[in-house]
Amino acid sequence: MVYGYPIRRIGRGVVEDSLCSERSLQVVYLPLVLSPISVPWVPTSRRALEELCNFITFRSTDVFYDLGCGDGRVVIEVAKRFGIKAVGIEVRPDLVELAKINVVREGVSDKVEIIHGDFFRIPIHNATVVYAYLLTSVNRLLKPKLSSELKPGTRVVTLDFEIPGWKPIAIRRFHDRTERRLYLYIIGVSDRAYVV
Question: Among 18, 168, 184, 186, which has the minimal tally of Cβ within 10 Å of its Cβ?
């Protein structure tokens, strides 16, 4: 047991990764004209959100971060269910505005903060739980930030895409029109598991 949990391609022109959407499995080819870390917005499905909330043991003192929060659905749900502080970081202005509207509509303005910016540049050092539904290639680029900014014991959860070179301490498999996975990593354990 570790912290209460049982142990257990970027090319020059495109990013290629399979994405599980709410409707189907699709392959996204994204030109890397604007940024080498562009990620299409694919909302976390209702089922995946339910699995996330049941997978993580939240404490009243937790501070939850969603990297690439989109419309804010994950931070809103976590704040409503567990009464904790939740922060969403989103680079797209249209999604930031939508997330802020949703936060007000759901009555969690006192618990949820939506930050407009690049999550690679926004400090996340006070997070105790970090959620990311990104691409494997982006998770690889995030590793140094996560290891250097997060305190030992901070939980990092990714949906569908692993953090290459880190060892998850738990994996939750579930079916949501296709096979899905949540990966749980612990800073100070998972990021030290492999010598790279």
Answer: 18
